[in-house]
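Blackboard transcription, Thursday session:
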Amino acid sequence: MYKAFISVLRKELLLALRQKTDVVTVLFFFLIVSSLFPFAVGPELNTLKIIGPGVIWVGALLCSLLALHRVFETDFNDGSLEHLVLSGEPLTVLVIAKISAHWLITGLPVVIVAPFIGLQFGLSAASLSLLLGTLLLGTPVLSLVGSIGAALTLGVRGGTALTSILILPFYVPVLIFGAGAVVADLQGLSIDGHLSILTAMLCLSVALAPLAIASAIKIALE
Amino acid sequence: MATFFFLVAAILTVWGLYIGFFVAPTDFQQGESYRIIFIHVPAAWMSMLIYLVMSFWAAIGLIMNTRLSSMMAHALAPTGALMTFVALWTGAFWGRPTWGAWWVWDARLTSELILLFLYIGYMALRASIEDPRRGDRASAILALVGVVNVPIIYFSVQWWNTLHQGASVSLTKSPTMATSMLTGMLVMALAFWMYSIAVSLMRVRRIIRDREGNATWLSESSGVQ
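(Written on the board underneath:)
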C-alpha cells in the first residue's frame, strides 16, 4: 500500500518535471491575475492593503481550479486510471497520492510565490507569514475538494466550466477563513479560531474527500 | 395522486393568502411590506427541506441501487432551485423598502445564494451526463458532498458576516408575531409543501416515462394514469 502510494506519487511528479510548462503556466496565471487588481481598483496602497489577502486567496483558488482537470483526466483518457482501479491497491490511497502530487505541483508553487505578490499589495511581514500559513493549510483543502469535482466530471461534456460550478460553492468556507485570518489579524483580532477551523477543514477533507473521489472514479469507469 | 396534492395546494394557497391579505393586521414597524413573508418564509423553508429530501433520495438510490429513488431526487431538484430563487427574489422585494437595499451580504441571504449554486451544480452535472444511471450516481455523490458542506458553509458565512459588518440587520429580533400572521404563514408553508409534492410527482412521472419508455409494465398501466 505504501509502495503503491510512493510509486504513484513519483510517477506524477516525474511527469510534471518532464513537462514543466504546465506548472509554469499556472504560476504565471496566478501572477497575472493578481496583478490585474491594482489596475482595476487603482494604485492606492491603503486600498490594496485591504484587498490584498482576498485577491491572493482568490488567485490561489482560481489556480487550483485551473489545474484540476489534470488530476485524473489524462489518466482517464489513456486508460491508466482503469489500471489503477484494477490494481487491487486501495483506491483511496492512490487517490491521495495523486492529489498530493497535484498539490506539490500546483499548490505549493502558488504558496511560495504568494508572499511576493503580497509585497506588491503592501502587506507587512507579519501578514505575509500569516498568509503563507493559511495558504499552506487551505490549498490542500482546495485540491482535495476540487478533485471531487474533477472525478465527477470525468469524460463528461462541459469540462472545466462544469467543474467550477460544482466546486466553487464548496470553496467558500476555505476562502472565508483563509483570507479572513489575515484581515482579522490586520484589525488586531485573534486568529486562533480561523486557524483551528482551517485545520479542521483540512482534517475533514483528508478523511472524507478520498472516499467520495474513489466512488466517483468507479462510477466514471463503469 | 398529483392532482389531489395540486387541489390541496390550491385550496391552502387561497386560504393562506386570504389570511395573509385580509385577516393579518398591518405590522406597526414594517407596514404592508411585511406581507411578503407569506411567500418568502415558506419558500425559504422549502428550499432547505427539499435539498435534504433530495439528498436523502439520492443517497438511497446510491446505496440501494434503486432507480426510482434517484428519479425522485432528479425530480425534486428543479423545485428546490425554484424555491430558493423565490426566497431570494421575494427577499429582495422585502429588503428594498425595509432595509433600503435590494441585497445585503447578510448571512442568511448569502447562504441561500450558495444553496442556489448547489442546486444549479447538481442539475448541471446531471444534465451533462448522458447515461442516466451514471448521472444518478454521480449527482448523488455531489448531493451528499453538499449535505456535509451545507452546515459548514452556513456557519462560516455567519461568522464571516459578524466579523465584517456586524449584525446591522437581523431578521431574528422581530417583534412577537400576531397569531393570524403565524397561522397565515403556516398555512402557506403547508400549501408550498403540497405544491412541491404535487409538482415533483408530476415530474417523476414524466422522468419514468422518459427513461423507462420501453418497459412493458408502463404500457400496460398507462391506462390507469
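Lecturer's comment: Residues 166-170 of chain B have pLDDT under 50 and may be disordered.
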